[in-house]
């Protein structure tokens, strides 16, 4: 099993690769389809994985952004993400990791409290996004957003880096360190 | 004709009920019209049989002819539907004065029975009847849930006696779909109804997703996905699952916990707990759990044994 490192491979020409990690394959697949339909000047590649570590592969391109998808309806999905986080190189957490929580809209089905994922994202100093992936319009909007994030993390947007992005996003959505 | 063959003829013909006798003898077509006319069919059955065996001897019947007759007897439905209906109705009416019983013959040798129950003092309630479907070629009957549970033993008794069985057992299998119950009980669910292209790749076979996979999407855990698909297919098969709405597990087991200590862990008596799964189509939902990533494959045998065991209500105790 190889550990994923953010900068151990050369980037492909105009290529941006995102890795979606989550237990529910159907959701990841739908999100991937939506992302590929979004407007994008770069060439996109989407990798889907159930958990980390990934199986060994020489042909894998450099991963620019990792999004961990947690379904608030399923304790198993949170547990799997928590276990996967241990297998990630620390350098990724400098703006190349994001958390996505789905299922918040159906409160009666939620078995994970919102604060749990908020704390998780805070622990790993990464942005947290909420989106009900089952609803097509929300998913399309989130897909567009992720594509923009991905382009920045891949360095395709001049003047903005992944690290810049981190501090920008923290201000608007996530509470600062003092608040929690 | 030798002794054993004559005896075989005697016993085979004796088994035929008088109502079917002429039909079977004519289908067998071994004894001619003239010969049959010489037999007096009004005497006692033993005498009729004796006369018929003598005729067989005259015609030098062989073992083949005897076997042929035996096959015909098995083939023709020897179940007397009219007798069943009248016996069933009599039993209910003798026990309960106020009851309405009606019948309708249906396909596959089945009879639909409608029963409106009353009590000793009240007339039958025609608005809340119970329905029973009995398949005469099988030892199975299906009933709709009757609001008057107290009449179930009587119904069971009537079915048992009228169908000439010794006892009736209530199965722990319930569903709103008669066809699905039939499929499970007659073990007909594991036949594919559509032609299936066996060379379809595993990916296309899953849940309707991935039909035209974009080459820009790469599954990192392809090997695991294929394993899950394979295991699911081995357990559930390719065919559509019979339709059930519930699976209920009544647990009477000792509480087990990972945490050391805790109040419940120290209890000696079993903890009573009811777990109920409900779905518009339970078995299809269970089938899709592992491929969707919600559960690990293979699933617990408690869930996968439902069609095999013909049960969806379970009681589980510690061994």
Question: Can you describe this structure?
Answer:
The complex is a heterodimer of chains A (180) and B (319). Chain A has helices at 25-37, 75-85, 114-123, 136-153, 162-172; strands spanning 15-21, 43-49, 65-71, 97-102, 128-130. With 180 residues, chain A is α/β, with parallel strands linked by helices. Chain A has a 5-stranded parallel sheet, sandwiched between helices. Chain B has 319 residues and is of the alpha+beta class. In chain B, 39% of the residues lie in helices and 16% in strands. A 4-stranded antiparallel sheet of chain B has the order 1-2-3-4, sandwiched between helices. A 3-stranded mixed sheet of chain B has the order 7-6-8, with no helix packed on it. Mean pLDDT of chain B is 84; it is low at 193-211. The A-B interface holds A 19, 22-26, 29, 32-33, 36, 43-51, 54-55, 57, 74, 76-77 and B 207, 209-210, 214, 216-221, 223-225, 291-295. Chain A: Component of the CENPA-NAC complex, at least composed of CENPA, CENPC, CENPH, CENPM, CENPN, CENPT and CENPU. The CENPA-NAC complex interacts with the CENPA-CAD complex, composed of CENPI, CENPK, CENPL, CENPO, CENPP, CENPQ, CENPR and CENPS. Chain A: Keywords: Centromere, Chromosome, Cytoplasm, Kinetochore, Nucleus.
